Amino acid sequence: MRTPAPDAVDEITLDADGIPLSGLIAHARSGPPRAVVVSVHGGGMRAGYFDSRVRPGLSLLDLGAGLGYTVLAIDRAGYGSSASPLPRGQTLMQQASTLHAALASFADTHDTGAGLFLVAHSNGGKLALAAAADARGDALLGLDISGLGSRLAVRTDQLPGQNGHGDWRRHWGPLRLYPPDAFRQGRHLISPVPELEAQEGPLWPRMYPHIARRVRIPVRFTFAEQEQWWRFDDEALEALRRPLAAPRTVIDLQPDAGHNLSLGWAARTYHLKALGFLEDCLLARDAAPPERRARPLSGAVRVP
User: Fold this and answer.
1) May I ask the CATH class of domain 10-292?
2) Is 129 exposed, middle or buried (0-12, 13-18, 19+ CB in 10 A)?
């Protein structure tokens, strides 16, 4: 296997049962990866959402690779290279199946270390939960989700749709929370929301409990202090936590941040906390009795 250059972020395309999923990858710099962090972008964005280069230290790919993880940022089905073969996108459950196929293909040819851990934003968080609810989801180490709740703070007709991105200010919050160049980079990341994804958007509050009760791995939710799409009052947080079958659920508030956390000044702080939760998941796995340890990803190989 080719040895990547230090600090390199490369383009990658995964085969998901014939569907090409494009993305970005940063290989662990210190030898074989301790685990693989799979980052999943939100609606109307691309994989580069997690690779902000407008200021040093904001990129999850750069940070994770430096801490010994391989970081794989995927363009979800209907975005990037799969936009042409999937012009309408996919439903959430179809996306979950596609993601599992892509990750199995990746594990066949890459060292996955201790396993796979999903870091997801907004609509990508819906996919992360749906993937964890799938029977194959128990092989994942855990989920870290930002910008997603289960109770809307807006009317359903205000949600981002296929023909627009809703009230763009809700994506950002106060502009002081972002480096000035973040908005120029953000324009290059914007992509149309696929039709099927837009149609399902208003249904999430009803879909969530049915998905959550099948999630059996640790989950952490982060709400930006200036989150404007989702409620995060005590009642809403209890409704978010109650249906989950996860062995551990953490809910955090990130100060000085808006919805697009990984593009803001708070990106490094949030990413460090997300990787800290991964460390907690690894610790729990290592300290668990043998019969309770997580199964490895089906098809995973250890590449010397």
Assistant:
1) alpha beta
2) buried
